[in-house]
Amino acid sequence: TQFVHTFCGTGQFFIMAPAQDVDVPKALLQALDKDGSIANSANFAETLGVDHQVVVGALNSLRSLSMVTSTSTVTQGLQLTEEALDMVRQGSHEARVFAAVPAEGGITQAGLMAAGPWAKVGFSKAMAAKWVAVDKKAEGGPRVTRACASIEDQVQAQLGQVQRGESVEEKVLKELKKRKLVTSVSLTTFAVGKGPAFALEVAKPEADLTAEMLQSGEWSKKTFKPYNFEAEGSVLDGGYLHPLLKVRKEYRQIFLEMGFEEMPTNNFIESSFWNFDALFQPQQHPARDMHDTFFMKDPARSTQFPGDYLPRVKATHETGGDTGSVGYQCDWKLEEAQKNILRTHTTAVSTRMLYKLAQQQEFKPVKYFSIDRVFRNEALDATHLAEFHQIEGVVADYNLTLGDLMGVIEQFFKKIGMTRLRFKPAYNPYTEPSMEIFSYHEGLGKWVEIGNSGMFRPEMLQPMGLPKGVTVIAWGLSLERPTMIKYKIQNIRSLIGHKLSLKMVRSNPLCRLDKE
């Protein structure tokens, strides 16, 4: 027989017996019909030979139908663990160790340890009780022998007392708890009485009124479950916005408020021509090496380029063309420009849009922006990934100056809540002058770089065919850095990639930038 567990309490002794095939709800109703009440649900469970929780479940079901009533009582008591129940049946670990040691000659310590999982603890307890002794210098290794002729298994007897609900000395009980053989538990029992809808048969009420019931008239014979108008509906799973999408939405709204038009950025694959050459980036530039750029295997090359534009780009690279520049004074190779890559910046999109603008019969000033993914062959660490999002703003008009660029940038970052800005001269192959943008970080107490900017060079703009006097200013920053600062994320790999926590995506708060 396998007992589920044993429980004893003040004046009561409960045994949770193995579950049987018993119709517990029916047995409850029959007992109430015969005796009028049930004083203790645990005793009733013992009588039926079922676990007490089975009776509690049946009781809750009948109570929901108003067939029974109940009042609860919490009783404190002791419960034997599975290990203790095994000791009650077969003896304590130390007694089993003593029995495993032959009266004559003893047994090797290694052989004793292999006798069972109880051997290690039992050997320690038997040694402490001086039931056995060890000869560490014995031939063939340490040997265990009996130190006394017979023993009395007090632990087994004490556990039996607990199981029978008898009182046990506090010192003994403390030791049994220390060995994790006995635990203190509380048992909630119920006194059960008849309810207003008491009956010997359980008539489960109908939850729905169906068309068939109405047509047959069966509805008049049915009992219907009352509606619970206070019950909450089930929680529906829905989509959740990633923190990057929330911050992106805020930046996009700022651009739209400033009158910018969003550029189409749906091409992740770009030719080296539009990504590098059209920006007047030399073909020998380190950024075009394989350790910085992802090159495509299939399709490996592009063949479609504007027929009149490509020769002008080639001439500008080699000699400066009609721009007044001397170019890079090197041979420009078409096969290098044809190589397909994963775009390294969204400025490739800006280049296409500016070329398209130059083909219009009448030039009209424009303000463009884009927020999308770019790819760099970089070493991965807490702040760098091989792919990230770039935010870019571009303004094209007549006679724009560096002051216009600084003014637009200050207006843009003011809407984000950054008012303390500094500009530092920098170098970019396709902008001159170029500036790095810094903002004072109140939390860190220092100036932090937040973006890059500049005015596109004539060597980039004139081959496109833009009218003379048209200048283009631009600036850019990443989307990940402000998102990490906003949501206090230390490692970028916790924001994007396989280490992303879906729990974080579901629970991250709304994004509210400190706009002015």
Detail the topology: elements first, then pairings.
Elements: E1 5-9, E2 12-16, H1 24-35, E3 37-38, H2 41-48, H3 52-64, E4 68-80, H4 82-90, H5 93-100, E5 107-108, H6 109-113, H7 119-128, E6 132-135, E7 143-146, H8 154-163, H9 170-178, E8 182-194, H10 211-216, H11 243-257, E9 261-262, E10 269-271, H12 272-275, H13 309-319, H14 334-337, E11 340-342, H15 347-358, E12 366-375, E13 387-398, H16 402-416, E14 421-428, E15 431-441, E16 446-456, H17 458-461, E17 470-478, H18 480-486, H19 502-507
Parallel strand pairs: 9-12
Antiparallel strand pairs: 1-2, 1-4, 3-8, 4-8, 5-7, 6-7, 10-11, 12-13, 13-17, 14-15, 15-16, 16-17
Keywords:
alpha+beta; 516 residues; 5-stranded antiparallel β-sheet
Strand content: 15-25%
Shape: elongated
Mean residue pLDDT: 87
How large is the radius of gyration?
Answer: 42 Å
Question: Taking strands numbered 1, 2, ... along the chain, how are they ordered across the largest sheet?
Answer: 9-12-13-17-16-15-14
Q: Work out the helix count.
A: 19
Helix content: 25-40%
**Gap between N and C termini, in Å?**
76 Å
Q: Strand pairing plus helix content: what structural class?
A: alpha+beta
Uncertain runs are 1-19
Largest sheet: 7 strands, mixed
The overall strand count is 17
